[in-house]
Amino acid sequence: MLLLRTLLHMPELRLSLHTGEDQLDRTVTRVYGTELPDPSRYLSGGELVLSGLLWHHGPRDSETFVRSLASARVAGLAASEPESRSLPGDLVDACARHRVPLLEVPVDLSFATITERVSMELAGLSRHRRLLNVVAEGSGLPALLRAGGHELNARCWVLATTGRVVAGGELGDRDVLVKEFLQADRLPKAVRGLTLVPVSERGGSRLTSWILVVGGRVSEEAAAELASLVGLERLRAAQGRQIENRTAAPLVAAVLSGSADLESRLAAAGLESARLRVLSAVTSDQRADLAAAVLEETLPQALVTPVGDTVCAVAKADDSSPDDVREAMRVLEPGLGSSRVLVGISSPVESRGLRGAAEEATHARRLAGRRTGRTCVVAGEEIALHQLLLAGVPEELRGSLRRRLLGPVLDYDAEHGSDLAGTLKVFLDCSGSWTAAAAKLHVHVNTLRYRVGRVEELLGMDLTEFEARVDLFLALQAG
Length: 479
Fold this sequence. Notes:
DNA-binding transcriptional regulator, PucR family; Alpha-Beta Plaits; elongated; 479 residues; 47% helix; five-stranded antiparallel β-sheet
């Protein structure tokens, strides 16, 4: 029997107690690492819960998380906060209120060390300990999957919901596996002779989870055990990513402002000599956290940071092909529900062109919003200059300009049930060619001349003038 009190007396763990001094005789049955805001469905009682508090954004989050631990009757919570180097006060208060013992983990102590030490006490030289040794040695996710496959007598992979194989080598039918995972009523799930197990769902969203794929049918307990250790590796990677992304916000601010220290910030991020792209992403329900998580999974090497309700990323051009991003977004679609994800990607640029690239990515994202589809990715090099220029004009102003230039024609069409505006668009699209436009409209050239003449009369403009054609072309595109 392992008591919480025993953990506090292990000098190598250096745990300190914040609340629950009268509850230290609780028995620890296992260790469970999580960043879910409500992990209660994965808890059976007696767990020492480990958390890096990635879910924490305020008092309400603490209340939800701790209440779920209390309802599951966990042994206690061991947490660390690398950003502030102290636990949030609202978390301490919530633990005291719900009688959940709270232990603080030193920021320089990995959760893998705690897991290994506790599991050794609980299980001796068990399978779990052998796998924990791999984690504790820092051998990485590929080594853990090989060891897990040996223990389970099955090949193992880790898959992101963008379809990216995180570790494990080639894996077929990835799109199918992701779709089955995202739409499953219950997990783990057997699919095509494989078992799909969730790994550390970020923010409680299955959409940004990892998937442990085990070849063959294995016991849910064994698969969940391996998934929990993969979750520790994911947490370690997330903490490393969090440190790397500390450079993202000031770098993006320097890009947007044209700051003189941009070059030094690029050098600090190891991007000073690379051709780069800027990406701008948003969800239709303005969930910056979801947009950021999606970009991080799609572009593991990018620097990602929220900018208001949108998310901005800077990535090496070779790592951020629009086709690759578009494919990753498409794989995600089954899990989006009613949300849309819109992404604009700049053309590749040198460092001196980053500010313009950021503006291009923003305009491309706005154009994506005017297109259809659950996900839409628009790259700057795919769109015409006039579209980029129009994308930078606010929607209300576009409508006002369209109305000012085309108002009489639009009113005439509404009153007479005609389509002079459509005729004008075809005529301009055909570069003013009477024969090409007439053929496209399936009318006689004389009929086309009459309609265009009516447009000129209504607008008081001469369509032989180049400037007039440009103005009307842009007005039609602004609609």
